[in-house]
Known about the structure:
It is built from three helices and three strands. It is α+β, with helices and mostly antiparallel strands.
Amino acid sequence: MAEKTGYRAVTKFLIASPTKVRPVANVVKQKTCSEAMAILENMPQKGAKLIRGTMKSAIANALYANKKLDEDMLYVKEIRIDEGPRLKRVWFRARGRADMLLKRMCHITVVVDEKAGE
């Protein structure tokens, strides 16, 4: 039988560079959900708002699946920022030239689980 991996939420195709969102995700790894949400509320980065929405969904999934859980019992087990497809746009430059502008996308996966032994 497979090991229980926790409750997860995935948000895909967000227009934000994964390299800019990953440092925000590293701040909240392995923290309790209430502490992580408080940290994300006070961060000015765009990635914090994106991660906060995904984390709210993961917490709601956990509370819906297990009615005995409380939000204080949950912690961020895993948070992953994967690279998505890139939108390719033309960037017009001087003297009739053009460059390729890549608008990067990311996929955010948040896994929350209950604390063991507490």
